[in-house]
């Protein structure tokens, strides 16, 4: 394997879009810790310290999942270069080596952040392995899988970021401090909201999941119930985020979260009725944009409160972020992940030719 191939494999195992998502959770934890403890470090340096264990944890999780789901991925994602095992860029032995090295790096770097960060990371590594690997294989257990994966991908980065930023007192001195009541509400809101979004991932993989007996919630209960459960989780998660806002929920923050919730519920209603695969993909991608927007609004609110910005300034920034998110959602619905494309006359479009025929 050449150096370029190794680099490409590691890049794909890092899953850049997922890594960006986990970095957001890490920053949210660090911002919450910096806000809660005047003696704690600034959020940005704390986020930087926490990113290495979080990235290594993610790569371990992805390596385990790719090893366990290789046969399913060959059906759902044939020849996809984003899956190194499927594309042949790496073999099972090499992927196992990646998993072991990443686990060691995650634990070591987390211990340098704080001893309790290493403990959180160790629990996350164990849960992530149990999610993908036999004999436990939580991924095959329907609704339990939708509860376990967010516990890894939300709690680990948030808590590691929080422990990197908190000052810590008493029994927690030197360990980074432990989250308080409002921070736990914030974490619960992020967790429940992620459950609502992760349920939608199964739409892409439903064919291979059904073929190999992976009993996801979608496979067992269908699209309508899946969208209803997602809507319920999204609603509860949004309410918990607002309740967990430091110093009480500011009206501008509550309004921004409510507006994005309304868009998400509209998208889910359309998804429950949609049957065209391409339009289904656009709706799911648009929902992902809204989900990231909720986190962006929350991070902006936490950061501005810690810097003691005026209420008017906070409202202006939140309005700008909301406008950006809504614009990106509209673009995703109209053009898809690739953005605006060159105009194609109607008579050359496959769907138009099929209708005409």
Shape: globular
Please tell me the overall pLDDT: 83
Distance between the termini: 49 Å
Instruction: Report the biggest beta sheet as strand number plus sense, adding barrel if it closes.
Output: none
Quickly count the helices: 15
- Share of helical residues: over 70%
Written as H for each helix and E for each strand, in order along the chain, the element string is HHHHHHHHHHHHHHH
CATH top level class name of the largest domain: Mainly Alpha
The low-confidence runs, each spanning 5 or more residues with pLDDT under 50, are 167-176, 340-357
CATH homology superfamily name of the largest domain: UbiA prenyltransferase
Strand portion: under 5%
List the quaternary state of the chains: single chain
Question: What do these coordinates show?
Answer:
- With 357 residues, this protein is mainly α.
- The protein folds into two domains: 179 residues, Tetracycline Repressor, domain 2 (Orthogonal Bundle), CATH 1.10.357.140; 156 residues.
- Helices cover 76% and strands 0% of the residues.
- It contains 15 helices and no strands.
- α2 runs parallel beside α13, α3 runs antiparallel to α6 and α12 runs antiparallel to α13.
């Amino acid at each position: 394997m050449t150096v370029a191939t190794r680099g490409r494999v590691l890049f794909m195992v890092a899953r850049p879009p997922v890594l960006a998502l986990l970095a957001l959770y890490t920053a949210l934890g660090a911002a919450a810790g910096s806000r809660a403890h005047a003696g704690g470090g600034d959020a940005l340096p704390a986020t930087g310290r926490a990113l290495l264990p979080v990235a290594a944890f993610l790569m371990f999780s992805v390596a385990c999942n790719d090893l366990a789901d290789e046969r399913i991925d060959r059906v759902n994602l044939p020849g996809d270069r984003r899956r190194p095992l499927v594309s042949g860029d790496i073999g099972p032995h090499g992927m196992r080596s990646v998993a072991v090295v990443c686990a060691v790096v995650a634990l070591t770097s987390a211990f340098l952040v704080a001893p309790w960060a290493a403990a959180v990371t160790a629990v996350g590594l164990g849960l992530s392995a149990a999610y993908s690997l036999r004999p436990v294989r939580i991924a095959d257990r329907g609704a339990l899988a939708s509860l376990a994966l967010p516990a890894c991908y939300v709690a680990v980065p948030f808590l590691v970021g929080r422990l990197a930023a908190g000052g810590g007192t008493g029994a927690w001195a030197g360990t980074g401090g432990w989250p308080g009541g409002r921070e736990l509400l914030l974490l619960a809101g992020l967790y429940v909201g992620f459950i609502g979004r992760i349920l939608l991932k199964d739409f892409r993989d439903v064919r291979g999941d059904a073929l190999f007996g992976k009993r996801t919630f979608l496979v067992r209960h269908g699209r309508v119930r899946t969208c209803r459960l997602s809507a319920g989780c999204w609603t509860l998660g949004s309410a918990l985020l607002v309740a967990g806002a430091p110093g009480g929920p500011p009206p501008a923050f509550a309004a921004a979260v409510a507006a994005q919730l309304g868009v998400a519920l509209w998208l889910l209603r359309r998804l429950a009725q949609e049957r065209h695969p391409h339009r289904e993909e656009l709706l799911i991608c648009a929902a992902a944009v809204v989900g990231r927007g909720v986190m962006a609004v929350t991070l902006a609110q936490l950061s501005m409160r810690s810097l003691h910005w005026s209420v008017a300034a906070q409202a202006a920034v939140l309005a700008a972020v909301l406008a950006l998110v809504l614009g990106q959602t509209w673009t995703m619905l109209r053009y898809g992940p690739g953005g605006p494309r060159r105009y194609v006359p109607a008579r050359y479009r496959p769907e138009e030719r099929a209708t005409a025929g």
